[in-house]
């Protein structure tokens, strides 16, 4: 195999995820050409999983891989959450069988969070585990789904209920993909960046407060720095708790209620939009339980609104939302658990919160219009082809 690769066009940062099999997360521009440098020895075949809008980008990647004498297979997935079903996974498995994929061959996830979720799950389950490399093309994918080894499929009963922990061999966050994303997709990903600030890094909150509009510039230095900070937060948490036995649960801040919104609204909400409302809801719960100052709740509302994220949801859906929250993966038996804040960068787990408090928090956020998903965004343009060769406290507060 030809091991020559194209050097990145600009400086990039490298974060190590120190799990049993450590791997790098690279953040910078011009990183697509680095993919072949991270293929495991002996790899002969690569299957690239991508969603239909990224067909051109997949073709660019195929051309790069073929210059390194690799057998390349492209597998196109349905768009967004429609690509995270058992039927789609089975189709990918059959493609792998027909291509005679072995344990030394590699799967590449090219796309947003739904694509990297599926690519990771297929890699985790084919032959009980083959290498996967993620090349996220959205802000949400870079700061959330691609890092950490969580994979998942959706069922009618809930999001990501079927899955496995399967760490990638590498994650390449090529920021060149962000340049042609619609503004709504940048806003969508910033919800997860803000989440990282609230749970672990005050400087993220400070930077967004200081220049919210600069955060929306996909070619600007402010967003580049925020992405690096968010990736560092996630890498640190995942390294300490790879399979979510404790501290890693803090990464689900805003997700208990956010995932419930996504399910009840039949995935017509963008994930980040739902998580934004989820963070406000969970801050409302924390205030009502006496563990969070009202000023921090107001900070949630003002910061998210400054970026164009919603802070309210539709009224009249409490029963469905409460039922959906009952299937949250953080629950243990009949014990319901929720991540909240005691302060910025000080998360905690609340257990067995009184239903009355939850319903009061819902009333506080169910005061606005329905935030429907906008039409499927145009795909990002592929980068130019390379030239040939402290754990949170456990609390039992909330009952009155």
Please describe what this structure looks like:
Helix 5 (183-200) crosses helix 7. The protein has a 7-stranded mixed beta sheet, with helices on both faces. Strands 10-11-12 form a 3-stranded mixed beta sheet. Strands 7-8 form a two-stranded antiparallel sheet. The protein has helices at residues 55-66, 86-98, 113-125, 139-145, 183-200, 202-210, 221-240, 255-264, 271-288, 294-306, 318-325, 355-365, and strands at 13-17, 23-28, 45-51, 71-77, 106-111, 132-136, 153-155, 158-162, 170-174, 337-343, 346-351, 393-395. The chain has 2 domains: 13-181, 3-Layer(aba) Sandwich (Rossmann fold); 190-365, Dehydroquinate synthase-like, alpha domain (Up-down Bundle), CATH 1.20.1090.10. The chain is an alpha/beta fold and 400 residues long. The model is unreliable at 1-7, 369-379 and 385-389 (pLDDT under 50).
Features:
single chain, 400 residues, alpha/beta, Rossmann fold, 12 helices, 12 strands, 38% helix, globular, disordered N terminus
List the helices and strands and how they pair.
Layout: E1 13-17, E2 23-28, E3 45-51, H1 55-66, E4 71-77, H2 86-98, E5 106-111, H3 113-125, E6 132-136, H4 139-145, E7 153-155, E8 158-162, E9 170-174, H5 183-200, H6 202-210, H7 221-240, H8 255-264, H9 271-288, H10 294-306, H11 318-325, E10 337-343, E11 346-351, H12 355-365, E12 393-395
Parallel strand pairs: 2-9, 3-4, 3-5, 5-6, 6-9, 11-12
Antiparallel strand pairs: 1-2, 7-8, 10-11
Helix pairs in contact: 3-4, 4-5, 4-7, 5-6, 5-7, 5-9, 8-9, 8-11, 9-10, 9-12
Write a short abstract of this structure:
The chain has 400 residues and is an alpha/beta fold. Helix content is 38%, strand content 16%.
């Amino acid at each position: 195999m030809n091991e020559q690769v194209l050097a990145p066009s600009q400086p990039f940062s490298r974060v190590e995820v120190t799990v049993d099999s450590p791997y790098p997360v690279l953040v910078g521009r011009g990183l697509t050409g680095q993919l072949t440098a991270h293929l495991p020895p002996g790899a002969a075949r690569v299957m690239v999983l991508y969603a239909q809008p990224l067909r051109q980008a997949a073709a660019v990647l195929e051309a790069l891989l073929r210059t390194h004498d690799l057998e390349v297979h492209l597998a196109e997935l349905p768009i967004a959450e429609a690509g995270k079903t058992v039927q789609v996974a089975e189709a990918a498995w059959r493609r792998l069988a027909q291509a005679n994929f072995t344990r030394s061959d590699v799967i590449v996830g090219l796309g947003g969070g739904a694509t990297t979720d599926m690519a990771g799950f297929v890699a985790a389950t084919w032959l009980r585990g083959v290498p996967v490399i993620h090349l996220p093309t959205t802000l949400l994918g870079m700061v959330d789904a691609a890092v950490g080894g969580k994979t998942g499929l959706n069922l009618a009963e809930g999001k990501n209920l079927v899955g496995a922990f399967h760490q990638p061999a590498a994650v390449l966050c090529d920021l060149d993909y962000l340049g042609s994303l619609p503004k709504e997709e940048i806003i969508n990903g910033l919800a997860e960046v803000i989440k990282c600030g609230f749970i672990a890094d005050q400087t993220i909150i400070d930077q967004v407060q200081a220049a919210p509009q600069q955060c929306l510039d996909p070619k600007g230095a402010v967003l580049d720095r925020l992405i690096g900070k968010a990736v560092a937060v996630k890498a640190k948490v995942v390294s300490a708790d790879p399979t979510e036995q404790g501290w890693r649960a803090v990464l689900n801040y805003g997700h208990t209620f956010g995932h419930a919104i996504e399910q009840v609204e039949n995935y017509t909400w963008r994930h980040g939009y739902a998580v934004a409302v989820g963070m406000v809801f969970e801050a409302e719960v924390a205030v009502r339980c006496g563990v969070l100052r009202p000023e921090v709740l107001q900070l949630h509302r003002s910061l998210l609104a400054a970026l164009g994220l919603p802070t309210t949801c539709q009224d009249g859906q409490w029963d469905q939302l409460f039922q959906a929250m009952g299937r949250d993966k953080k629950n243990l038996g009949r014990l319901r658990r929720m991540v909240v804040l005691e302060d910025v960068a000080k998360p905690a787990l609340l257990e067995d919160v009184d239903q009355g408090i939850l319903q009061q928090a819902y009333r506080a956020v169910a005061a606005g219009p329905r935030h429907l998903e906008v039409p499927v965004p145009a795909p990002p343009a592929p980068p130019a082809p390379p030239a040939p060769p402290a754990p949170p406290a456990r609390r039992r507060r909330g009952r009155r």
